[in-house]
Amino acid sequence: MLKFAALLSLASLIPAFVEAASPVWGQCGGQGWTGDTTCASGSTCVVSNPYYSQCLPSSSNPTTTANPTTANPTTTVRPTTTSAGGGGSSSSVPQPTTTPDASNPFVGYQIYLSPYYASEVQAAAAQITDSTLKAKAASVANIPTFTWFDVIAKTSQLGTYLADADAKAKASGQKYLVQIVVYDLPDRDCAALASNGEFSIADNGLNNYKNYIDQLVAQIKKYPNVRVVAVIEPDSLANLVTNLNVAKCAGAQQAYQAGVTYAMQQLNAVGVYMYLDAGHAGWLGWPANLTPAAQLFSNLYKSAGSPKFVRGLATNVANYNALSAATPDKVTQGNPNYDEIHYINALAPVLASEGFPAHFIVDQGRSGQQGIRDQWGDWCNVVNAGFGTRPTTNTGSSLVDAIVWVKPGGECDGTSNTSAVRYDAHCGLNDAAKPAPEAGTWFQSYFETLVKNASPSL
Ligand SMILES: *[C@@H]1O[C@H](CO)[C@@H](O)[C@H](O)[C@H]1NC(C)=O
């Protein structure tokens, strides 16, 4: 009886919550969220990750567009079973049945456009009233970006994309390539807070990660005619080169190495062309860091059995450096490797001498504007950034396979809410745009600035 009365009184409160709905693009759920879980009219609450749900305009309603955020992560965040061979070091390493192209894997392929990013961009363009800006914003939906598989719940979405790419390939007679980011290491983002992940080393994280890789592999295996290119684990190995003084990075070292080794071996077996993340010019590009970095990449690669589909390294992922800067940005403080091409040209011979394949892809998605940072290390939603050079294989360097957009511009780098669990001080700096929602969720005003400041212009 008492319980029933309590329920009744609770129910009488509900209309008050409904009236105070979260605004479009506002937060509407996530771990520890005590605010409104309903959305303003015309928008729907969509789960982005365990930490964040966001009110997205109903025009981006994901049910028809294969939106990865529709997966319910709470059911799959902690898999109860580990995969066969997931933990065994004695199990033999599977080998690919095909031989990788010796030349640039991007050449001759049509790059698949993520329907999820396209739906985000279309919804964003719909919010813009200025017709010129609206048209420019809408055009971004036709520029290929990578899809980040940042929680295990999204892995089934890869199958949907591959099936779609396979169908498009058959219909058009063209060959298709799907671009993915493998990003779910346990104790992820060990030197920062904004992108902390779902797996913890202390709680079976490495086995959970192996299961995550197995889920990706299971999808890829089904579509042998679609080429997959992957960026492997942004920031992870670079953190092992320079941030072992951070306790969380030191504690993660073995798990990162084992996880990346497993990813290389298993993705190699299904013919995924891989680029390991290598930070950027202002990180591993400092002369003192080049040799330690090359040795780490090379040692891991060799201990994984020199997987043939490891093609090289990805640089500047989600960062703002130019591939080739006319003059050094003021924040580069005398580093001779002041842009990505100087970094690549300096690193390539060291890699080659260490026996690592020295090919590169470079993210230029948000590199349109230079001279916008107070410090080179500032990475969070930097104010006045603009979309950069469009993806192309016409890179001006035989070392660089492709200019790519790895970071989907408009998705947030990290929250500026100082009370949030994943608040990182970089997202509160003077050159960080505020107020910013959680990492990975849509940041409308930031997207509009990227469009306005695009160089070359859209
Ligand atoms: C900031 O985060 C805290 C903790 O999750 C939350 O209670 C608060 O409502 C958030 N503030 C804003 C402006 O989103």
Model description:
This protein has 458 residues and is an alpha/beta fold. The protein is built from ten helices and eleven strands. It has helices at residues 2-19, 115-126, 131-139, 155-172, 205-221, 236-242, 247-269, 287-303, 340-354, 444-452, and strands at residues 27-29, 43-49, 52-57, 110-111, 147-149, 176-182, 227-232, 273-277, 310-315, 360-363, 400-404. Helix 4 (155-172) runs parallel beside helix 5. The radius of gyration is 22 Å and the shape is globular. It binds 2-acetamido-2-deoxy-beta-D-glucopyranose. 2-acetamido-2-deoxy-beta-D-glucopyranose binds at residues 27, 32-35, 417, 419-420.
SSE layout and pairing:
Layout: H1 2-19, E1 27-29, E2 43-49, E3 52-57, E4 110-111, H2 115-126, H3 131-139, E5 147-149, H4 155-172, E6 176-182, H5 205-221, E7 227-232, H6 236-242, H7 247-269, E8 273-277, H8 287-303, E9 310-315, H9 340-354, E10 360-363, E11 400-404, H10 444-452
Parallel strand pairs: 4-6, 5-6, 6-7, 7-8, 8-9, 9-10, 10-11
Antiparallel strand pairs: 1-3, 2-3
Helix pairs in contact: 2-3, 4-5, 5-7, 6-7, 6-8, 8-9
The protein binds 2-acetamido-2-deoxy-beta-D-glucopyranose.
Residues 27, 32-35, 417, 419-420 line the site of 2-acetamido-2-deoxy-beta-D-glucopyranose.
Sheet with the most strands, sense and barrel status: 8 strands, parallel
| Inertia-based shape | globular
Tally the helices: what do you get?
Answer: 10
Question: Which blocks of ≥5 consecutive residues have pLDDT under 50?
Answer: 1-18, 60-90
Strand content: 5-15%
> Total number of β-strand segments?
11
Average pLDDT metric: 89
What's the helix-strand series? HEEEEHHEHEHEHHEHEHEEH
What is the percent of helical residues? 25-40%
Protein name: Glucanase
EC number: 3.2.1.-
Enzyme class: hydrolase
GO molecular function: cellulose binding; hydrolase activity, hydrolyzing O-glycosyl compounds
